[in-house]
Write a structure and sequence with these properties.
3-stranded antiparallel beta sheet, about 45% helix, alpha+beta, two-stranded antiparallel sheet
Length: about 120
């Protein structure tokens, strides 16, 4: 069995990290589920539809189980789900553009001179 030094491990980890950074992840469409305690879970469109169908039932289940984008299995009380919001590449781009405009307006309104 080969012993790996700490320095070799760090170098290997850095190389893998650099390789990973070269390939940008494509977020695509997803939904964000927000809970009462302000936790956020990211789910695929297919999973969001399944969750939505369960939440729309006349007799709502007490618990809901789903898998998020990273593959984690999550179980929540349905009463703790506050919102489920769709996020598309276009809507995120529009949000960023709106934030830039707001930031520019805020900068124009500032007057740091004391009367």
């Amino acid at each position: 069995m080969t012993q790996v030094t700490q320095e070799e491990y760090v170098q290997h980890t850095n190389r893998r990290s650099e390789e990973h950074e070269r390939i940008p992840p494509e977020a695509g469409d997803y939904f964000v589920i927000q809970t009462r305690d302000s936790s956020w879970f990211y789910v695929s469109t297919v999973m969001a539809r399944a969750i939505d169908q369960r939440l729309d039932r006349f007799l709502r289940p007490r618990w809901i189980t789903f898998v998020d984008i990273s593959g984690s299995r999550i179980r929540l009380r349905t009463e703790d789900i506050v919102s489920m919001v769709q996020s598309t590449p276009m809507s995120r781009a529009e949000d960023r553009a709106f934030a830039r405009v707001r930031y520019a307006e805020d900068g124009e309104d500032r007057n740091w001179d004391l009367p």
